Queue: 3 jobs
Job 1
Amino acid sequence: MDGIQAPLYRVNELTPDPNVTFDPKVTASYVKYAHWLAARGLVNSSVGGMVVRVPHPDYPDGICYAKPQGVSLEEVEAEDLVITDIPHGRLLAGEKATTVGHQMNREMLRLRPDVNAVIHLHHDETIAFLAAGYEEIKSYSLTYGFLMQKPAFYLPASINVEEDVAPIKTFIQDTNCIIMRRHGFTVLGRTLSEAYHRTCVLVSEVKRNIIVETLTSRNGKTPEVITDEELAGMWTKGDSVMYPQAVKRG
């Protein structure tokens, strides 16, 4: 057919693999962090997603733990989870279909072999802050730069990478945080713990932006922002500041 080869598998195609089974430690960790995000009030409108990559000898890109569609992060339990491959999104364990956003998460994992966890949230304050006319989230804290380790990338509201993943390859190597106007954000981490803490520091910075803008509009003072030059230095020193023992062992 004009030289176009049909894909080997369809998204959410049931292809159970007896060599792929749920690891109780991974499922417990997934549920724990999902509930922690909800407990912080970050799972707005009962939507959002999270994926965890685990190595597997039969899958060069690893396998991917995810929640299925129709289940919120605040409600998800171990028995709800499914496992997919990363290139195709076929179901290797579990039978429930994944969300449309899962293809975005899988593409990010495929393009970033150093990343093993992705958290995507429709965070109210982030959406509202940018909708109020602010062009970017400024940094007022030392923790943000050291923990995020790369600058945020801002997607215009006209681009929805959940539905069309093609644009992801143009920016994903240079960021650990994608701010999606009118949508929310997506945060990457080498571990689920890192993705979680990067999410927490991001929402804290959004809150600080709102507070600083509110206070300086009343007192007329100029905000004390972390400059781009200062942030650039913090990106490169993140591991030595945040994970000194790991750097020493490496």
Job 2
Amino acid sequence: MKFLKKLFLAILSIFIILIAVLYITDTDYLIKAVRTIYLKGHTTAYLEDYKHFDNAFVGNGNSQPWPNHSDYNKVKETEALNNINKTNGTVAYVIIKNDSIWFENYYDGFGESSQTNSFSMAKSYVSALLGKAIMDGYIKNLDQPVCEFIPEYCDGKAAKMTVGDLSSMASGTNWDERYYSPLSITTRAYFDDDLTKVVTGLKVVKEPGTAYKYASGDTQMLAIAIERATGKKLYNYLEESFWKPLGSENETLWQVDSEDHDLVKAYCCIASNAKDFARLGKLYKDHGKWNGKQLLDSAFIAKSITPRFAESPEYGYGWWLKSVGDKNFFMMRGHLGQYVIVEPEDNVIIVRLGHSKGDGDAIATFTDDISTYIEEAYKMLE
């Protein structure tokens, strides 16, 4: 009995020391990581993890349901699509043709209104909100210095960094995009309760505006700039600028770092569903118009879906760009294979949400699954 008591006290002492070390070394965010992710059997963020974080509410207004196409669900998934859906854990697959639902199906107990994490698809929303802030006169243009909103970036190379650099992933900071390392800044940002502190601690190590480097910290910094420019919380600005005007059918949630600091995780973490996510793709397809009203400047959209750097043709301003065969797509893209894929010439939008993107850990490039989701959709449409 004495041995068990000593063993218990020893384990307790080690635990207390470990917790103290985490706080002393400013890595106490790992406590939250262990509690919300690792102890639940995951090695990274997952579709429904938003339930374990603080969230801001984003309301919807007068909903505008997508109409069903005259050929709605007349064609079933191809064999290849069924296989990849099963292998990668697809939860939603939707094809929208001519602004009508041509095909939709949901899997693994999820439905058309089920909320799942957008992950980095949120970056496209933040870029759109930058365009809206410019259109509304809060921000002058893409060339306005970040320094005018975040004074920590007024010295040296940092003074040259613009809001456009943040939207196009060209800040030149030392952000390290690693999802599976518990000690990376990406992991810290996901669990830390003060994102402003995390982001303003970044160093500008390369000339801003000269090259693309995928960095979630750029989008987070852009969110801070937009909030300070507009004087509005980003989740409120999303609600009034897009979520309500686009006729979203469901309310949504956007994760925040904490109740105290109330800053959205701008690089990720909008909890919504396939058909509401698709609305931003339609807005961009239609050059910023929705029901005849210009919600976003068409010139800004055209620039957003065009590569900024010739050597990095896969990225514009908050949107991914990819050619498959003779077709050119722009898309929103998330960590575990969250996609809103748009082909404007064919008036086609493909949405896929799921647990995994399959083999490979491509961050700044494309994984093979994307081509499969596109190719099988077009086979179905034939």
Job 3
Amino acid sequence: MRLRICLIASSRFPVAEPFMGGLEAHTHSLAAALKRRGHEVLVFAGPGSDPALEATTLPVAPFSSSEAARSDVGGRPEQWMAEHHAYLDLMLALARGDHGHVDVVHNNSLHHLPIAMSRTLSAPLLTTLHTPPIAWLESAAEFAASNAHYVAVSDHLARSWEHVVTAETIPNGIDTAAWRPGPGGPRAVWSGRLVAEKAPHEAIDAARLAGVPLDLVGPAHDPAYFAREVEPRLGAGVRYLGHLAGDPLRRLVGEAGVAVVTPAWDEPFGLVAAEALASGTPVAAYARGALPEIVTPGCGRLAVGGDTASLAVAIREAMTLDRGAARRRAVEHFDVEVMVDRYEETYRWLSGVRDAA
């Protein structure tokens, strides 16, 4: 059955490589796969999104705050109001039917309005939870339509939300046809946003303890953190290669002997770990959040969170593991087609509930 699906993403960041984060990567993979399967997909996302998705830029009404409002440096009124207007405009347009009939509205944003205004929609709303509980999303859930449904990207995340909503788990998927097995090599790789919550400086310390050279890749979004914790540690086998995307990134991960993952918080999923496994690269990671759901003894090693000595041991051991087993783990459990199968099933169930009502 061909469905017409509305996908709502972030208004702030484009759904395009290099992805700002897992939310954008997830939306891109899901939209592309649904289109390949013949569904009609309406994508609403930030400016600069991949033209292949034919995304509609979320409308942002211009707003200029008063001098008094701007004095609150923590409020960032222009940014807050821009996002508010974008989602308000979209939800009102969907409620009026401006975008035609849709079978399901799938919300991947972190904004409260799609959930809070779900009662205005004729179509059921599905929200994928990508982060631990956020106050404004918790509040919005109180106003959600009775047929609003929730998905979490890991069992760990579903448990963290269970005091608010019941969510089924559908793990994020990656394109294992693009993330192909690589030959491996003597170096380790760390990929992601170079920010304190990802703790790349701890990956450097652990790799040095393990005696393994390390490549870091990703956007340095926090210049102060980078200058304080990362830059002084570069050299002597540790390189920062910038923000790579597409084939250069996939080639680098496939040529690594191990991928190091060092969240300083409970990671909701851990897309970089799944990408590494698809490349045949075993993973050494902190056992935080959902990472124990991704990294099993056959494809990686887990270390005590924040313990670089424990992580150094995990790095050395992971480099000895079978690359074929790592690849199989990704294909069987985290391939995008496996994810889309689950979402299609959920879309059809939601559409059936709506039709029966």
